[in-house]
Amino acid sequence: MRTTTEAIIGAVTGSLEAPRTVLLGRYDTAGQLQYAGRSTTLSARFGRALGDVLVRPAGTHPWQGWTFSAGWGTPRTLDVVLVEPAVVLEVAVDVARDAVGRFRHPARPHRVRTDVDVTQVPLFGEPGTEVGGP
Fold first, then answer.
1. pLDDT tens-digit profile of 75-131?
2. pLDDT at residue number 71
3. CA 1 to centroid of chain Cα atoms
4. CB atoms within 10 A of CB 6
5. Which of 16, 48, 95, 114 has the lowest CB atom count within 10 Å?
C-alpha cells in the first residue's frame, strides 16, 4: 500500500543542475535532519526543474561527512551533492518502514511543495500523512 507525504530534499545524485535521484530527510523530535530514503530515478524534465530550485548549503550541512549506501547489501556508496535542506517534495511512498523509520522502498516524486515549509513536514518516523493543500 502506498500513501502520499512530504519530505525534505537533503542531497541529490547526479548534478545539482539536473539531479538523477534525491535523498530525502525529515527532522526528528530533537531537530536533527534524518535520512528518510531515496527517490526513484527522476525524469530529465523533473530533474532540470528541481535544478532550478536547489542550491548548495549556505553553511554546514546536517549530513556533512555521511555516506549513503547504493542499495541493500552492497558496499558501494552513492556519490551525492548536498543541498540546502529547504525544498519540500511531495512523494508517494510505501507504508512499510525499516526498523528506524526510513522509507523501505524508493519514493516516487510528485511535485515540489512551494506552499509547504520544512517545519510542516511530518517528523522522522511518523506515518505518511498529507500536509494539506491542493
1. 889 999 999 999 999 999 876 666 667 887 899 999 999 999 999 999 997 665 444
2. 76
3. 20
4. 23
5. 114
Cα distance between residue 72 and residue 3, in whole Å: 22
**Percent of the chain scored above 90 by pLDDT?**
74
End-to-end CA distance of the chain: 22
Sorted by where each begins, the domain ranges of the chain are 2-120
Pick left, alpha or beta for residue 120 (phi over 0 → left; psi -120 to 50 → alpha; otherwise beta): alpha
Instruction: Name the pTM for this structure.
Output: 0.89
- How far apart, in whole angstroms, are the C-alpha atoms of residue 74 and residue 132? 37
Residue pair 6/25 in contact (Cβ under 8 Å)? The answer is no
pLDDT number for residue 99:
63
- Report the C-alpha gap between 132 and 134 in whole angstroms: 7
Grid cell, residue 45, equals: 524534465
- Cα separation of 6 and 133, whole Å? 12
